[in-house]
Each structure stands twice: as structure tokens, then as C-alpha cells.
Amino acid sequence: MSDIERFRKHRDNQMEEDRGMSVASIFPANDFDTVLESARGELECGLVIGYNKDGFLTSFGGGMSGGRQPTAAFWLYMLKQFEIDLMNGVYSDE
Fold first, then answer.
1. For the whole model, what pTM was predicted?
2. Which of 25, 80, 85, 94 could disulfide-link to 90, CB 3.0 to 4.6 Å?
3. Tens digit of pLDDT for each residue in 14-69?
4. Residues 61, 3: Cα–Cα separation, whole Å
5. Which of 2, 10, 18, 8 is nearest to 70 (CA)?
6. Distance of alpha carbon 86 from the chain centroid
7. CA-to-CA distance for 31 and 66, rounded, in angstroms?
8. DSSP label at 60?
9. Within its chain, how far is the Cα of 7 from the centroid?
């Protein structure tokens, strides 16, 4: 099973659980270290995308997916799925 197929299967299993969930606001949200600390131990793998102190877009990715290191295609699929969910209001309180 490819990384994309594993991700889709995992995503399908999570769909009902994810409905109605929102991206939690963590206070103080302006302290990014607090945001990162809240994610500790919660993710099997993940991406951090943001702007560094010099204003340049940068990213970090790590972890394992189904016991394997994620491929570039896996990361792209994860980003696109997040974009779709975000545009469809999955993370909205409304």
C-alpha cells in the first residue's frame, strides 16, 4: 500500500470523528512555543510551516506514517487535504 493509500485509509477512518472539530485556539497564541508544546505527543507525523525570524517561509516535517518515512507525495497530499477541509469549513465553529 502506498503512502497516499495509507493516508487516505487513515483519513477515511477519521472522517466521522473529525466532523465538527475545529482548529483549537491555544493561548497565548502569539507564543508559538506554546502551540508546539500542545502538539507534543499528539501526532504520528506532521508538518510545521511558517515564517522564520528573518521573514522567510520555512518548513519542518517529521515522524513516521504506518511505520514508514513519509514521501514528498504524502506531504503534498496532507497539505491538499488540509486545504480542502479548510475551504469546506471543517475547522470552523460556524
1. 0.60
2. 85
3. 555 555 555 555 455 667 888 888 888 888 898 989 888 899 999 998 999 888 89
4. 15
5. 2
6. 11
7. 32
8. E
9. 12
